[in-house]
Amino acid sequence: MTRSQKNTAIFFGVFMGLFSFIESMIQAGIIDEDSLLSSLRRMLISGIISWLFYFLTARFIKTKSPQEQGPKIELDNNELMVLQSFGTHLKGIEAVGGKLVLTDKRLVFKSHRLNIQPHELSIPLTDIESVFSYKKLGLLNNGLAVTTSNGLVEKFTVDEPSVWTEKLASVTPLRV
């Protein structure tokens, strides 16, 4: 199980525990010491059970790598792939799912067909001014922002954005 999957499992467990806590607080009506302790106990137990359920089921689900599934991105002659993963491109208010590929010449995103706004975006490395990772919604450290030479900021959601930042810095001179 990767670090990202463990973080997701912990987040899921905490969320489910919090949900159970809120539900029990609503049912209790008036909060007294006994009901508060009981609610906290239920929150902790349901969080642990949810985390264990996620952890155990994630071990048995076989997922394919980005190389094996998802949209096919055609590379130009003499173009070498540096990094690829599944991700989303934030286009307006829609998070468009697809595949993000870094080559030695460009950064390419290609959406899968099941989006409202299917598209392909290709940014030559020479047009990239800066790259930084950020916390999406202020919580999850999975955001990657790429600023182009014309001032546009393209935002992506990827696992391990720090790896993307390092790889982009290794193939092009930019501000990280």
Please tag this protein with its features:
alpha+beta, PH-domain like, seven-stranded antiparallel beta sheet, PH-like_dom_sf, transmembrane, transmembrane helix, membrane
Structure notes:
The protein is α+β, with helices and mostly antiparallel strands and 176 residues long. It folds into two domains: 3-60; 81-171, Pleckstrin-homology domain (PH domain)/Phosphotyrosine-binding domain (PTB) (PH-domain like, Roll), CATH 2.30.29.30. The chain is built from three helices and seven strands, in the order ααβββββββα. Helix 1 (3-28) runs antiparallel to helix 2. The protein is elongated.
Classified in CATH, the superfamily of the largest domain is Pleckstrin-homology domain (PH domain)/Phosphotyrosine-binding domain (PTB)
Q: Over the alpha carbons, how many angstroms does the gyration radius reach?
A: 21 Å
Could you tell me the CATH topology label of the largest domain: PH-domain like
Q: Separation of termini? A: 29 Å
